[in-house]
Amino acid sequence: MLGDDVLVIVLAGGAGERLAPLTRERAKPAVYFGGPYRIIDFVLSNCINSGLRHIFIATQYKSLSLNRHIRQGWTVVSEELGEFVEILPPQKRVGEHWYQGTADAVYQNLYSIIRENPKYVVVLAGDHVYKMDYLKMLRFHQDMAAEVTLAAIEVPVEDGKRFGIVAVDESDRVTGFLEKPDQPPSMPGQPELTLASMGIYVFDSDVLIKALEEDAAKPASHHDFGKDIIPALIGHGRTYAYPFYDENKKSAKYWRDIGTIDAYYEAQMDLCQVNPEFNMYDPEWPLRTYMPQAPPAKFVFAEDWRRGEAQDSLISQGCIVSGSQIHGSILCPNVRVHSFCTIEDSILMPGVRVGRHARIRKAIVDRDVDIPRGALIGFNPEEDKRRHTVSEGGVVVVAAGDEPYVTAVSEVALRLEAEADRRG
Q1: Res 377 pLDDT > 90
Q2: Which of 238, 255, 257, 246 is closest to 168 using CA atoms?
Q3: Is the predicted pLDDT of residue 409 greater than 90, yes or no?
Q4: Does 181 score more than 70 pLDDT?
Q5: What is the number of alpha carbons within 13 Å of residue 147 lying toward its C-beta?
Q6: 384 vs 369: CA distance, rounded Å
Q7: Residue 375 DSSP symbol
Q8: Whose CA is closest to 197, among 128, 282, 247, 267?
């Protein structure tokens, strides 16, 4: 089988600085997304669904929670059959420095790659959200007799300056690679579109090894696939662009690099829509993760003055919504919302506790944060900016150690609370 000749390397060591403070204590691929999932789960699910079961994950920054998640949630392969999902931390096999770039992360692990003796090596980023059958790309690689194949997605020319852009001829052979150009080259026959690199590469293993060794000998190199390896190979080998085929089964192709707070927030808010762009409910393309042992989500109290309910929201296992209103929000596992709260257009990470009478709007609350009684988040811009991180798009990020603004609870609210408690 084709998959038996393939080794996958997932690059999961980036610092994710633009997602701070969510990456203050964890690597970007370990950030939660869509309730119980982590960002890395989507690329790993793609691998398993594609039949690729020889997977290395190169980690570096703040990798403890990521390592634990892989250990707990990704023991789905058979070691008896030679399958594996293994962590590759920096080992300094070839020098005294940590990973210096995406290509250097792979170069420093050539020992592990050579030991597996693969025919093909697939290099993936661990921080993108999409659905893709990598076997289709590998077959394209074989059919074109390519030495290097990179996946590319069509984007409007005016948006091309945000991406690494791939120039191709009529046969999809790569003729150039430009990093965030001011004037992106258009696709053949489609002047309104250009091809953006997705950070997904297939290499003949001997070609990759030689390219990495040559790049490592260049002191001025960035040791990066997009900036150095791919441009160097274009003129010396058979390099092709694979047009992204989306397994998401929607009218528009879905691929998100959720590298900023606003991009992360918007991608998750889409999941709350009636017909979201990203389909998490396709039984033919299961999304795997570590599911904590937790009871079903529960909503309690149904009086007029205290009603536990959620609308247009994703509520994970272990959550209890006690007499509060949840609108257009995502609650990760084991969140507890006490009575008389309103939560709108927000993301609550695992273990968050929300005290009575709190109001939260357009916010991300990090893991295990306790929101005090009467807190007001997302309503007073000056107080939010003084106490929390606020994105350019106005998303308030509440991290551990922040002290939310707290308002006095009105006498009317206290009377309703006392009456509700008296009635049980």
Answers
A1: yes
A2: 238
A3: no
A4: yes
A5: 17
A6: 16
A7: B
A8: 128
Task: Give pairs for 86-94: CB < 8 Å, separation 24+.
Answer: 86/55, 86/56, 86/57, 87/56, 87/57, 87/59, 87/63, 88/9, 88/56, 88/57, 88/58, 88/59, 88/112, 89/59, 89/60, 89/63, 90/13, 90/60, 94/216
CA 92 remoteness from chain centre? 27
Per residue in 194-224, pLDDT tens? 999 999 999 999 999 999 999 888 888 888 8
* Closest C-alpha to 396, from 335, 342, 345, 324: 345
| Residue 152 confidence (pLDDT) above 70 | yes
Instruction: Please name the residue that has the structure tokens 């079961």.
Output: 53
How far is residue 317's CA from residue 344's CA, in Å, rounded to a whole number?
Answer: 19
CA–CA dist 123, 108 (Å, integer): 14
Work out the end-to-end distance of the chain between its first and last CA atoms, rounded to an integer number of angstroms. 63
CA distances to 49, 140, 280, 312 from 283, rounded to whole Å, are 11, 26, 9, 21
Domains of the chain, start order: 2-271 (3.90.550.10), 298-423 (2.160.10.10)
Q: How far is residue 230's CA from residue 174's CA, in Å, rounded to a whole number?
A: 10
Q: Which residues contact 284 (CB under 8 A, 6 or more apart)?
A: none
Continuous segment of H or E residues that includes residue 36: none
Q: Is the dihedral of CA 42, 45, 50, 56 positive or negative?
A: positive
d(CA 373, CA 36): 26
Answer whether 394's CB lies under 8 Å from 50's CB. no
- In degrees, rounded to 5, the angle at the alpha carbon of residue 327 between the alpha carbons of residues 323 and 331 is 80
User: What is the DSSP code string of 174-207?
Assistant: EEEEEES-SSPPPBTTBTTEEEEEEEEEEEEHHH
* DSSP per-residue codes, 238-293: -EEEEEP--TT-SSS--EEE--SHHHHHHHHHHHTSSS-SS-S--TTS-------S
Partner residues linked to 121 by β-bridges: 7, 203
Structure tokens belonging to residue 236: 């010396």
Identify which of 66, 84, 103 has the alpha carbon closest to the alpha carbon of residue 199. Answer: 103
CA distance 52 to 69: 19
DSSP 8-state secondary structure symbol assigned to residue 297: P
